[in-house]
Amino acid sequence: MLYNPIMSLSLGWLSAVLAGFFTVHVLQKLCFPYFWRDLFFLLKVIKYGAKLEVFKLTSRVVTVLDRFIQQAQRIPDKPFLLYEGSTYTYRDIEERSNKIANVFLERGNLKKGDSVALLMSNEPDFVCVWFGLTKLGCSVAFLNTNIKSRSLLHCFNCCGAKTLIVGADLVECLKDISASLQEDSIQIWALVSQSDHTDIHPLLDHIAAASIQPVPAALRAVTVLKTPTLYIFTSGTTGLPKAAVITHLQTLKGAGGFWAFGGTEEDVVYIPLPLYHSAASLIGIGGTIEMGATCVLKKKFSASQFWNDCRKYNVTIFQYIGELCRYLCNQPKGVQDKVHKVRMGVGNGLRQDIWCDFQNRFGEIRMCEIYGSTEGNLCFMNHIGKIGAVGRSNFFYKVLFKYDLVQYDMVKDEPVKDERGFCQRVKKGETGLLLSKVGATSPFFGYAGSKQLTEKKLMRNVFVKGDAYFNTGDLMAENQEDFICFKDRVGDTFRWKGENVATTEVTETLGLVDFIQEANVYGVEIPGNEGRAGMAAIIVRPGHSFDSKKLFDHVLRDLPAYARPLFIRLQEFMDMTSTFKQQKFHLVQSGFNPATISEPLYFLDYTQKCYIPLTDSIYQSILAGERKL
Questions:
Q1: CA of 34: how far to CAs of 5, 385, 393, 480, 546, in Å?
Q2: Rounded CA separation 549/612 (Å)
C-alpha cells in the first residue's frame, strides 16, 4: 500500500483533535463535574427571567391567574385538583371562581385594590376564592389557621382588610373575636348555607345562584410586576405575625420552580402542606398551573396515608418540609415502600440523615431543596440533588444574584464589624450570616402596614456606605464545590413542626401570666426531631410562686401548638449581653438535660394538663421518642 502523506496528516490532525477533546472532557469531569448541569439549569432560569423582563418592557404582565385562565381554555377538561376522591377540572375551578367573583362584585362592595382576608383550610374552595377575588383585582391575605385571637385581630390591621372569608370548619374560631371584628367594621362571609350568627353572612347559596360568566378582564389587569397580590404572614422578631407583601413578580418566580427542576404537564403533584404558606400556594398551586399539570390537594398531611395516596393518584412529584420526610421514615416498614411512581420531591429543611434514610427506604427519589423565605429577595435551588445542600452556586449565579456570608458572633448575637464598622466576609467553607443585596434586580418588598418592620429586616452600610442588604437571619456555609448548606438560625426566630416561632411573640404572651416577671424564649434541639423545640427561662415575680396548671392553661389558650414552650427553666436572674439584650446562646447550648442543669426544669404534659417536673426518666423517654412533643 502506497504511503499517502495527506491522509496521514489528516489522521494525525483528527487524532490530535480527539485527544484534545478527550483531555478537556476529563479535565472538566475532574475539575468542573457539574459544569453542564449548571449551565443547562442556568439557561432555564435565564429563559424564565427573560419572560419576566418582557413583561416589564411591554407593561403587559401575564400573571399566574392569567396563566390559569389560559390553561382553562387550552385544557378545560383536564383534572386540575384531586381532593378527597373528587376531581375538579380546570374548567370547574375557572367557573366556580367566576361565580365567587360575581357574588362579591354584586354583594361584597369590593373594588380593585381592596384587601380581603382568607381563613380557610386546604380545600378546592380555597383556590376558587383566591382566584375569584384576584379576578376582581383584590389583594388576598392568607391567614394561618393556627393563630389565636390576639394575633388574628392584629393580622387585619396589618393588611387593611375589611372583609373576611372563612371556611365552614373554622367559623367557630371566630367566636372570641367576632365582636371586635364588628367594631372594626369587618364584614364576615362563611362558606356555609346558613349561619347561626347574625354577623356572619352565608356564602354557598349566593355562589350556587351566581353566573359563571367571567367578570371584566380589566379588573384583574396588571401593568406593573411589583403590584402586590397577596399577603402571607410570617413570624418574625417583632412578636406578632408580619404580613409579607407578595407581588406578582414573586408569584411568577415561585410558579417556575417545578418547571425549572424538570416538571412537565404529565406530572401529578401532591400538596400536603398548608396553602396559607408560600410553598404550597406559590410553588405548589402556581407551579401546577405553569406546567398545566394536575395536583392532589390534601386537607392535612397524614404519614399513614401518604404513600397510599401516591399510589392511588399516580403521584410523580410531592412537596415536603424536612419534618414531613422524618414522619414518613418513622412509619412501620412495608413491602410496598418502593412501589410508587414518585420521581421527585421539592421542598426545604431536609436533614442529611433523614435524606439518606428516605432514599434508602423509598427509592432513589430526586430530592430538590429550595431555600428562600416568604419575604426574602434570594432563592437557592439544589438542582444537582446533592445530599445535605440547600442550594447550588457558581460564578454565573453570583453575577446575577448578589449575596454574601459574613462573620457572626453567636455570643454577642450580632455580625462582626471591622474598625471602620463594616462586615467581614467569611472564607470558603466557613459559616456566616447570609445577606442578600437589595437592588433593582433583587428588590425587597417588606411588610404591609409598617415601614419600621421593613427597615428592621435590612442591614445598611454593610461593606460600603449606602449599600443595603436583606438579613436572612440564617447561618450558612458554602463549600469548595459551591454547594450551600444551612447551619442554624440566629436572632429571635426558630422552626418547630414546620412553622416559624417568633420568640418575642411567645415572650409577650408569657408576660401576661401574673406570676411571671421576665421570660426568655429560645429553641433547643431534640435528637431525632427537625428544628428546635420551644423552651422558656423564666423568673417568678417576688411574692408569687410557679403555677404549672395556670401556665399550661394560658399557653394552650393563647398560643398555637407549635409555639408553646415544651420546657420551662426557672431562674433567679437573666444573663444579658453588653447591649442589654437577653442572652440566649448559653441557654441554647445547655439544652434541657436535668442531669447537667441545677435549676428546676418542667415539661409540657398534655396528659396531665400541666407542666410537670422534668425528671431524668422523662428526659430519657423524650430522647427515646416515647413522649408526645
A1: 42, 11, 11, 13, 58
A2: 9
Where would I find the H helices in 32-148?
A: 35-58, 64-74, 90-106, 124-135
3.30.420.10, 3.40.50.980, 2.120.10.30, 3.40.50.880: which CATH number matches 90-246? 3.40.50.980
CA separation, residue 179 to residues 154, 186, 199, 405, 497 (Å):
14, 10, 9, 48, 32
Kindly list the domain boundaries of the chain, sorted by start residue. Answer: 90-246, 391-488, 493-623
Spatial separation of the C-alpha atoms in residues 428 and 386, rounded to whole Å: 18
Helix (H, G, I), strand (E, B) or coil at 163: strand
- Grid coordinates of 270: 401532591
Question: How many Å apart are CA 104 and CA 446, to the nearest integer?
Answer: 29
In whole angstroms, what is the distance from residue 395 CA to residue 379 CA?
Answer: 16
> Residue 365 carries which side chain, given as an amino acid letter?
I
Closest CA to 133 of 61, 174, 58, 189: 189
Please determine, looking at this structure, whether the domain spanning 493-623 carries the CATH number 2.80.10.50. no
Q: Tell me, what amino acid is at 570?
A: L
Cross-strand pairs, 602:
568, 613
Superfamily of domain 391-488: Luciferase; Domain 3 (2.30.38.10)
pTM, two decimal places: 0.82
Q: Which cell numbers hold the place of 207?
A: 355562589
C-beta separation of 64 from 289 below 8 A? yes
Q: 141, 275 in Cβ contact below 8 A?
A: no
Which region, left, alpha or beta, applies to residue 548 given φ > 0 means left and ψ of -120 to 50 means alpha? alpha
The three-state secondary structure class of 481 is coil
Q: Which residue has the cell 415502600?
A: 337
Distance CA 381, CA 346 (A): 10
Integer angstrom CA distances of residue 540 from 505, 514, 515: 19, 9, 6
The C-alpha cell at 321 is 418540609
Name residues whose C-beta falls within 8 Å of residue 17's C-beta, 6 or more positions apart in sequence. none
| Contact (Cβ atoms closer than 8 angstroms) between residue 530 and residue 351 | yes
**Beta carbons within 8 Å of 47's beta carbon, 6+ residues apart:** none
From the CB of residue 482, how many other CB atoms can be counted at a distance below 10 Å? 19
Identify the weakest region by mean pLDDT among 180-189, 248-257, 357-366, 559-568: 180-189
255-297 residue pLDDT tens: 999 999 999 999 999 999 999 999 999 999 999 999 999 999 9
Cell numbers 459544569 label which residue?
35
206-219: pLDDT as tens digits: 999 999 999 999 99
